[in-house]
């Protein structure tokens, strides 16, 4: 007869590990996004000829980085539903972390390698594509895994994801504040940091099966995965996975997570990173790192963390999707801040305080509603289907990111 008593999470070690795993999944995206000043410094330079400006090539790095990070996330999140039946969880998660580590090491090495701008742009975009491809497999696998545990662990996992951005923003501030005479040294240290973070994430994952509490919940997934591959393939052929999409509750949560990220990625960072301070002589060097990235990531993390204390509205409430849709107001509000250069829209909120306040509300609502959506979805299916529901929600999360990234091009153009 199987075991009926549930072990305890001693020292909250499983919670800590899933917090670290959440942190590790979004470190790649956040370290590239927060490093915009470094990339723009290497790309958007003015060329001179006989003392006059002849070329100022605009690479639109913000937009392309956002798009080429979210498209592979969408593609490989979809492919992950096939991969989880053919490739073991250990290979998917540990293998993805190893490749992400190698790609970040490449990025760190390129800091010291002189390179023609077009080639540097191409190599960087290819690196972003592949890092986010492996990141999608990693994130989808971990969302499926955490869906097997009690609900609070989903919130803990997403809280860790929220802190990844804050971690990256603080690292960039330290790099900017460095007075090192070698301008490359801070950038090199900045990109070495996620390498260490990825290693810690990998070791944390490898330690997870040794914990009794994790083994109790996750071992069932391993046996199911190992023993019923043929049955899973037949289910896939019959498209049974879409049973979850046809459920009204899952549709609501899928819509909510898609809409939240569509709004968020449509203006952040493609629009918000171009906002200029009203006091350029005082702190222009730090303005975007603090008021755009640090403010966003701290409040996004706060929003995700709040869901571990209380969850409102409930998953059955009709108010929940209404509040999610109401976030669309942040798109025009941020576009009417002091975004420069601009062509069409006026500036209604020129002051730094206005931009910072809008960013704080924008980000805390993003983190809160995303975390609620992702936490609620696995509760709406049978326990044995929680992993599939978690993986399916990850697809809609990626869909929202991709739609938002695509929208960022026209929205930035009409500012």
TrEMBL record:
Chain ranges passing through the membrane: 12-39, 59-79, 91-111, 123-149, 156-176, 188-208, 241-266, 286-307, 319-341, 353-377, 389-409
Main location: membrane
Subcellular location: Membrane
GO biological process, one term: hypoxanthine transport
Any single Gene Ontology cellular-component annotation: basolateral plasma membrane
InterPro entries from the UniProt entry: Eqnu_transpt, MFS_trans_sf
4Fe-4S listed as a keyword: no
Pfam family, one: Nucleoside_tran
GO molecular-function term, one example from the UniProt record: nucleoside transmembrane transporter activity
Record bears the keyword Manganese: no
Topological relation to the membrane, as annotated: Multi-pass membrane protein
Alphabetical keyword list: Membrane, Transmembrane, Transmembrane helix, Transport
Family the entry assigns: Belongs to the SLC29A/ENT transporter (TC 2.A.57) family.
Listed name of the protein: Uncharacterized protein
């Amino acid at each position: 007869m199987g075991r009926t008593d549930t072990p305890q999470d001693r020292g909250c070690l499983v919670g800590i590990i899933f917090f670290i795993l959440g942190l590790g999944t979004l470190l790649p995206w956040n370290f590239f996004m927060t490093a915009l000043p470094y990339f723009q410094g290497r790309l958007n330079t003015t060329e001179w000829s006989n003392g006059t400006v002849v070329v100022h090539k605009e690479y639109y790095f913000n937009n392309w980085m956002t798009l080429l990070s979210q498209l592979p996330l969408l593609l490989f999140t979809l492919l992950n539903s096939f991969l989880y039946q053919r490739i073991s969880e250990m290979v998917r998660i540990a293998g993805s972390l190893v490749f992400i580590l190698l790609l970040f090491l490449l990025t760190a090495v390129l800091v010291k390698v002189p390179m023609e701008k077009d080639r540097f742009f191409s190599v960087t975009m290819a690196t972003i594509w592949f890092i986010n491809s492996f990141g999608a497999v990693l994130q989808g696998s971990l969302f499926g895994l955490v869906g097997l545990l009690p609900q609070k662990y989903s919130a803990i996992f997403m809280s860790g994801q929220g802190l990844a951005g804050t971690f990256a923003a603080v690292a960039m501030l330290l790099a900017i504040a460095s007075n090192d005479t070698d301008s490359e040294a801070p950038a090199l240290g900045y990109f070495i940091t996620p390498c260490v973070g990825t290693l810690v994430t990998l070791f944390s994952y490898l330690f997870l099966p040794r914990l009794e509490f994790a083994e109790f919940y996750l071992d069932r997934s391993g046996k199911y995965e190992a023993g019923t591959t043929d049955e899973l393939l037949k289910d896939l052929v019959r498209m049974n996975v879409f049973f979850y999409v046809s459920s009204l509750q899952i549709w609501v949560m899928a819509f909510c997570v898609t809409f939240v990220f569509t709004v968020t990625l449509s203006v952040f960072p493609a629009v918000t990173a171009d906002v200029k301070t009203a006091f350029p002589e005082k702190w222009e060097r730090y303005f975007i790192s603090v008021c755009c990235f640090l403010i966003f990531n701290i409040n996004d993390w706060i929003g995700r963390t709040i869901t571990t204390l209380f969850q409102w509205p409930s998953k059955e409430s009709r108010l929940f999707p209404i509040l999610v849709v109401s976030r669309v107001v942040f798109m025009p509000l941020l576009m009417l801040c002091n975004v420069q250069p601009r062509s069409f829209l006026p500036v209604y909120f020129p002051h730094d305080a206005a931009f910072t306040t809008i960013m704080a509300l924008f980000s805390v609502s993003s983190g809160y509603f995303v975390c609620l959506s992702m936490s609620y979805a696995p509760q709406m299916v049978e326990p044995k289907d929680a992993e599939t529901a978690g993986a399916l929600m990850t697809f809609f999360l990626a869909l929202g990111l991709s739609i938002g990234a695509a929208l960022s091009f026209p929205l930035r153009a009409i500012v």
